[in-house]
């Protein structure tokens, strides 16, 4: 029995070794060389088969996702549901088709940001342009903020972003950026691994699914 198990492990290992370098690069580039779990984003990664090799899953980019060793182990030990992995893949594909890695980071950042405490100059608002154009975030002009005499304004929310602006720059014109209801729904669905929730929001912003996207959503 032990020999059979060992043989099966070796067989699976051989199949994993068959993943070509171009496929590996495609999957890792797609993920931005970070873990696809939105609650992790660790810069350590392994390739995980969404449909397992034992179930007929192939060594193709649409069936592979980058996960850190810890998240990878948690998926196989069923601490992370496989449906969540499918949701992460859908978001990874959508981000690459419509936005940038920075846009994805901004979405997660705003979902964790302290509301109106995030004060930006016009240049800072530009960082969120893709989200604003997509209707996932909105800009609010801050007439209540007076920069003169204030200490440099610092916002730090790990592990996503850091902003620091001299108060004098904010005295002329300042803004807050926050997620719209749609943006909040997308961020929460992404973090929860909710495939239906993700597809519902992506459909509203005219995100046309690719064949791989449709396959994963089934």
UniProtKB/TrEMBL annotation:
Residues 22-73 form the HNH nuclease domain. The keyword Lipoprotein does not apply. One of its GO terms (molecular function) is endonuclease activity. Transmembrane segments: none annotated. Gene3D superfamilies: 1.10.30.50. CDD domains: HNHc (cd00085). The keyword Nuclease applies. InterPro entries: HNH, HNH_nuc. Keywords: Endonuclease, Hydrolase, Nuclease. This is HNH endonuclease. It comes from Paraburkholderia tagetis.
């Amino acid at each position: 029995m032990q020999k059979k198990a060992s043989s099966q492990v070796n067989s699976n290992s051989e199949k994993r070794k068959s993943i070509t370098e171009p496929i590996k690069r495609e999957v890792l580039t797609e993920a931005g060389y970070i873990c696809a779990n939105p609650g992790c984003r660790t810069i350590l990664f392994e390739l995980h088969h969404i449909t397992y090799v034992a179930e007929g899953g192939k060594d193709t980019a649409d069936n592979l996702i980058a996960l850190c060793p810890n998240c990878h182990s948690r998926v196989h030990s069923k601490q992370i549901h496989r449906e969540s992995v499918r949701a992460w893949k859908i978001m990874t594909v959508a981000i690459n088709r419509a936005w940038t890695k920075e846009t994805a980071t901004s979405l997660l950042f705003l979902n964790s940001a302290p509301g109106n405490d995030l004060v930006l100059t016009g240049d800072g608002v530009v960082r969120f342009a893709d989200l604003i154009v997509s209707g996932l975030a909105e800009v609010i002009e801050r007439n209540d903020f007076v920069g003169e005499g204030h200490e440099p304004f610092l916002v730090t929310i790990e592990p996503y972003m850091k902003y620091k602006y001299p108060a004098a720059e904010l005295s002329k014109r300042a803004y807050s950026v926050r997620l719209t209801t749609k943006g909040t729904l997308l961020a929460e669905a992404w973090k929860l691994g909710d495939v239906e929730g993700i597809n519902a929001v992506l459909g509203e912003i005219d995100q046309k699914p690719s064949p791989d996207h449709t396959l994963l959503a089934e």
